Amino acid sequence: MKETLDAVLTDKGTKVHCVVPGATVLAAVRKMNEEHIGALLVCDGSDVLGIFTERDILCRVIDSPRDPATTTVAEVMTTDLVAVSPDTQVEEAMAVITEKRCRHLPVIDGGKLVGLVSIGDLTHWVSRHQEVHIRDLVNFITGKYPV
Ligand SMILES: NC(=O)c1ccc[n+]([C@@H]2O[C@H](COP(=O)([O-])OP(=O)(O)OC[C@H]3O[C@@H](n4cnc5c(N)ncnc54)[C@H](O)[C@@H]3O)[C@@H](O)[C@H]2O)c1
Asked: What's this model's pTM, rounded to 2 decimal places?
């Protein structure tokens, strides 16, 4: 499989949910719950400042403890952002996620944010492509493959 994140984004869509750094943790969590997502990119205009994830809520808000109604996203976000480009191969992106122990990868092209992929998107993509590959092999073996 030699597909790139471009293909994943064509399938998934390029919309990225963001939050401003001054938003409260409570407002950000409500947005994540409304959208059924586990992360928000923290953006100031077109500048990506960091990422705010479920893990940040567990480690830096609940366990501290900090008040979600008064703590800002900027205080608890992850600034050490791991990003990839749209021409990154799906397997390469999975390796990055494993190595860096993150679950969401912003996709940046020439300094511009063009999408976001999650560990779920990548595993879903791989398993779907394996299914197609297995079906093709079965059809080939059982003589159903078109000649
Ligand atoms: N990956 C999927 O297609 C998908 C969809 C719905 C639910 N789930 C379930 O949710 C759980 C975790 O899934 P996950 O690893 O994909 O993480 P997630 O719950 O954060 O992501 C769910 C979907 O939302 C997208 N998403 C997340 N944050 C986003 C953002 N800021 N901007 C734009 N899109 C964003 C992801 O790319 C993914 O497609 C798993 O149990 C999974 O089965 C997955």
From this structure: 0.90
